[in-house]
């Protein structure tokens, strides 16, 4: 079945550093891929998505490109801010039904 | 955009109490909702799939008599933690997905509530 493998954390970066959080997937067909962000004490918010191969999702300076050849959907940001400190989850839908599969989450802390 | 509202956001109660958590889809109908549990610094663990008008589907290892799920309408699912004990303390999150009849929903995201922090004393 479908699944995602996400880079383990935690990740600590200085403000304005470059961020990459790796995510690879296993899937039947080409499902849409998603990144979610969870700020402390809150639920998950959709950060960005890509619906087909070579699509690039982007939001709030974050980007991720749907790479079919490497089965990857890595999250990147060129210059992180303290406010980006959160946990990031890679996700994709199941083949059937409405269930999603989530990665283990990567905790990011940005220090001034 | 689609909004999911979860209530309450924080509950503290005594051991043995039953606690009900509500999950509402505010601007769309959800035939299916999901309940997750999240331990500190860990990922989401799917507990059950809530199906409107029928029984919930529980994941392996989740006690259905302990975690009662009711999905009585297209906009409301409830999770009741019965006779809660300290080990039930956790962060519970619900989600729903916009699915339109006859439409392609494969690129529709899950929409999450803000979560309920349950603390059992």
Largest interface: A-B, 24 and 24 residues
Quick one: overall form of chain A? globular
Helix percentage range of chain B: under 10%
Could you name the ranges of chain A where pLDDT drops below 50 across 5 or more consecutive residues? none
Radius of gyration of chain B: 14 Å
Query: What is the H/E order of chain A?
Result: EEEEEEEEEEEE
- Mean pLDDT over the residues of chain A: 93
Tell me what portion of residues of chain B adopts beta-strand conformation: over 45%
Number of strands of chain B: 11
SS summary, helix count of chain A:
0
Largest sheet of chain A: 6 strands, mixed
Beta content of chain A comes to over 45%
Extended strand count of chain A: 12
What does this structure look like?
The complex is a heterodimer of chains A (112) and B (121). With 112 residues, chain A is an all-beta fold. Chain A has strands spanning 3-6, 11-14, 19-21, 23-26, 33-38, 44-50, 56-59, 62-65, 75-77, 86-93, 100-102, 106-111. In chain A, the strands form 3 sheets. In chain A, strands 2, 5, 6, 10, 11 and 12 form a 6-stranded mixed sheet that branches. In chain A, strand 7 (56-59) and strand 8 form a beta hairpin. Chain B has 121 residues and is mostly beta strands. In chain B, strands 2, 4, 5, 6, 9, 10 and 11 form a 7-stranded mixed sheet that branches. In chain B, strands 1-3-8-7 form a 4-stranded antiparallel sheet, with no helix packed on it. Chain B is globular, with a radius of gyration of 14 Å. Chain B starts with a strand and ends with a strand. The A-B interface holds A 31-32, 34, 36, 41-46, 49, 51, 89, 91, 93, 97-100, 102-105, 107 and B 6, 32, 34, 41-44, 46, 49, 93, 95, 97, 99, 105-107, 109-115, 117.
């Amino acid at each position: 079945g479908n699944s995602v493998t996400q880079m383990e954390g935690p990740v600590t970066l200085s403000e304005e550093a470059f961020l990459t959080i790796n995510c690879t997937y296993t899937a039947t067909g080409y499902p849409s891929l998603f990144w979610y962000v969870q700020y402390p004490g809150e639920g998950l918010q959709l950060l960005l998505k890509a619906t087909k191969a070579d699509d690039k999702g982007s939001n709030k300076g974050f980007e991720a490109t749907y790479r079919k050849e490497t089965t990857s959907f890595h999250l990147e940001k060129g210059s992180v801010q303290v406010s980006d400190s959160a946990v990031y989850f890679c996700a994709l839908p199941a083949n059937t039904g409405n269930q999603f599969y989530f990665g283990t989450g990567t905790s990011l802390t940005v220090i001034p | 955009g689609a909004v999911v509202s979860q209530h309450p956001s924080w509950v503290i109660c005594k051991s043995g109490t039953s606690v009900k958590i509500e999950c509402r889809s505010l601007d769309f109908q959800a035939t299916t909702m999901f309940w997750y549990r999240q331990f500190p610094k860990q990922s989401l663990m799917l507990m059950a799939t809530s199906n409107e008008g029928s029984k919930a589907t529980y994941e392996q290892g989740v006690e259905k008599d302990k975690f009662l799920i009711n999905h009585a309408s297209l906009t409301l699912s409830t999770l009741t933690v019965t006779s809660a004990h300290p080990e039930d303390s956790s962060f519970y999150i619900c989600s729903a997905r916009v699915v339109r009849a006859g439409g392609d929903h494969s690129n529709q995201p899950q929409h999450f509530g803000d979560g309920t922090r349950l603390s059992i004393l």
